[in-house]
Amino acid sequence: MKHCLFLAICAFVQCKAAVITDGKIIEVNERPIVGILSQEQSFYLHGKFPEENYTSYIASSYVKDVEKSGARVVPILIGKDRSYYKELMKKINGVLFPGGATFFNQSDGYADAAQHIYEIAQELNDTGDYFPIFGTCLGFQLIIILASGRGKVENRADCYSYTNLLLIFSSDFRSSKLFKDAPEDVVQILANEDVTINVHRYCILDSNLEAYNLTVDWRPTSYGYDDNAIKFIATYEHTRYPFYAAQFHPEKSSFEWKLNKNYAHSMNAVKANRYFMDFFVAECRRSTHEFADAAEENDYLIYNSPAVFTGVLGSAHHQCHFFEPRGVVSG
């Protein structure tokens, strides 16, 4: 029987890797590539590279977090027209919206690019083309703002959370896509130890979902309390699309080292936080998009923009990748 099943799978996917999920044979991409959206430089970083005047950057911790889970990274640039994002998304297998310190009303920036990506990802999934998105912190908030219609009033609340927290799981979290297969030891760490790293002054509350009639499409799966005892959503997922987000920073426990930040770096913190990108990359493996050939792939990969050691310059990010200098490049 097992032999027959193997032959059936091979016949279906021409001997490419496959798994059976919910009784369906699903092709698995063993060379996933995740796009990470860049964003405008912070005022602090801009001051460290005034001559280069870079258009955007990505903190290397997000890149490493994706790579440790078995994927490669393509940077997604801001300030492009919709066709750029549409064409690029035909070649990659998912998109990460990282956290950061940018604003959503900056012209041709992070939020504008994310809106193109979000809408194109909806279109892809509506046609049966599996395409996941994961948002972290600022990206977590932006996804809900995009789902709300991105009006003049941003659909998020003031919060103040700059500490490590445990997760308060929703009563039905085990039936969610994000947590249904999470190992019990990971769940116990998240539920009982302060291992999720929070660095945010805005958040999404249940009332933000209710005010914009988002409770049918968006499902909170865990919560936290900020420094003023405000209960905020810590993780959520879309009920139909493979869209997920975390208000905290899973990447920081392994890859951000600024001494005065007191990030959780214990083995349990590293283990539990690793789960989130492992999950997301597994979702990206369900996308079969690919570049035309290895040469085209190589042209897009983030290795073309080596990481700069910005931690030594006082940045909160240990390393960063910078893109599209608008000034005169020194040296």
From TrEMBL:
Residues of the active site: 137 (nucleophile), 249 (proton donor), 249
Pfam families named among the record's database cross-references: Peptidase_C26 (PF07722)
Subcellular location: Secreted, Extracellular space
Leader sequence segment: 1-17
Key words of the record: Hydrolase, Secreted, Signal
Signal found in the keyword field: yes
GO cellular component terms listed in the entry, alphabetical order: extracellular region; vacuole
GO MF annotation, one: gamma-glutamyl-peptidase activity
Keyword Signal set for record: yes
Catalysed reaction equations from the record: (6S)-5,6,7,8-tetrahydrofolyl-(gamma-L-Glu)(n) + (n-1) H2O = (6S)-5,6,7,8-tetrahydrofolate + (n-1) L-glutamate
A GO BP annotation: tetrahydrofolylpolyglutamate metabolic process
Taxonomic superkingdom: Eukaryota
EC number(s) recorded for this UniProt protein: 3.4.19.9
Primary localization class, coarse: secreted
Entry's family note: Belongs to the peptidase C26 family.
The name this protein goes by in its record: folate gamma-glutamyl hydrolase
